[in-house]
Amino acid sequence: MMSFFGGVGKAPIAVILMVSEMTGSYTLMVPSMLSTAIAYVVTGRNTIYVNQVPTRSDSPVHISEYAIPLLTKIKVRDAMT
Questions:
Q1: For residue range 5-21, what is the model confidence (pLDDT) as tens digits?
Q2: Which H helix or E strand runs over 29?
Q3: Which residues, 6 or more positions from 33, have their beta carbon under 8 angstroms from its beta carbon?
Q4: Which of 16, 30, 39, 79 has the highest local Cβ count within 10 Å?
Q5: Whether the predicted model's global pTM rises above the 0.90 cut
């Protein structure tokens, strides 16, 4: 189940670490790496996060952070040393 989530969630390293943490040992590290890698390749471009944007600048929520240039936020007295 964890390898399936690593494939469709596009988070294979996090899943491998979760398996190690949940089992309490590193005995399942190699099998989880193998199964997660296979699931990642099999799922291809399919993901469960269909509305996830590629970068933070593409997000409509964070558009205000990129709309105002940085220099308009800084005052001259704060920049002078």
A1: 999 888 899 999 999 99
A2: helix 29-43
A3: 16
A4: 16
A5: no
